[in-house]
Structure formats: structure tokens, C-alpha cells
Design a protein that fits this description.
Helix content is about 90%, strand content about 0%. By secondary structure, the chain is mainly alpha-helical.
């Protein structure tokens, strides 16, 4: 069962962090020559397809993470510090994503519906900032996970 939990946990992290990496490093720069409203329409469509996957990833990360926390380490008290750090950073990422989803994405969709270029630009900028923070946190979590897991076998 642990191999399945680990595989699902890693796959969920790859989907979420990889999606943010693609969006920030490849898609965002490719759209630089387009108007703010054209970018907003595309981002609203992209997020509409990506965000359900993030919600699924979050649920799987929480389920598998807590399963492994208790099955492998017997709970918080016995778990190594890297596991607690991963959990804390992961929860911070989830809260930041919830903010993007319930505030920034809502504003972006509304600005697209009414074709308000200024509001769309403002919403995209707010999402961009939080997404960059979350991308950095996600990469940090991956580093912490790999270094911590490696240290268990040293």
C-alpha cells in the first residue's frame, strides 16, 4: 500500500508543481505580445482546465500524506523534521491556491465576462505573484522531500 501512496503523492505533486512551472516559465512569456484582454481570455480558459486538477491533487496529497505520516511514522511526534516541514509548506501552498481560486480567478473570470481589460490585467498580476510564490514553495517542498528521504537511507 505504501508504494501506491508514494506514487500517487508524487504524481499529484508533479501535476500541480509541473503545471505551475509550465504556466509561469513557458505559457506566460509566450503570451507577452498579446493584449491584456486576449491573455485574460486564454488564462481563464487554461485555469478552468487546470484548477480542477489542482483540487484533485490537493485531495490526493492530503490523503496520501496523512496516510504515510501515520502508517510510516506513527504520527506527528515520531515523524522526521522534513516531513513536518513538507506538510507545513504544502498547507501554505494549499491556502495560497485557495486564495487564487476563490479571489483572483473569480475576479479574472468576471473581468473576462465583461471585457474589462484593466480589471483583467490587475487580476492576472495578482494571480501571477501568488503563482510565483507557490511555484517557489513547490520546488522547495520537492527539494526538502528528496533530501529528507535520502537522509533516511544514509
Amino acid at each position: 500500500m505504501n508504494a501506491i501512496a508514494i506514487a500517487l503523492h508524487v504524481l499529484s505533486a508533479v501535476i500541480w508543481v509541473g503545471g505551475m512551472f509550465f504556466a509561469y516559465v513557458a505559457l506566460r512569456p509566450a503570451l507577452a505580445g498579446h493584449t491584456a484582454l486576449a491573455r485574460a481570455h486564454l488564462w481563464a480558459a487554461v485555469f478552468g482546465r487546470f484548477f480542477p486538477w489542482v483540487w484533485i491533487a490537493i485531495l490526493v496529497l492530503l490523503a496520501t500524506g496523512f496516510y504515510m505520516l501515520f502508517s510510516d511514522f506513527g504520527g506527528f511526534k515520531q515523524s522526521p523534521p522534513f516531513v513536518n516541514l513538507m506538510l507545513a509548506l504544502g498547507i501554505l501552498m494549499m491556502l495560497l491556491f485557495a486564495h487564487v481560486f476563490f479571489a483572483g480567478y473569480r475576479r479574472l473570470r468576471h473581468s473576462v465576462e465583461i471585457n474589462d481589460e484593466a480589471a483583467a490585467g490587475k487580476a492576472m498580476n495578482q494571480i501571477r505573484i501568488v503563482m510565483l510564490i507557490n511555484l517557489i514553495l513547490g520546488l522547495l517542498v520537492i527539494i526538502v522531500a528528496m533530501m529528507g528521504a535520502y537522509s533516511l537511507y544514509d
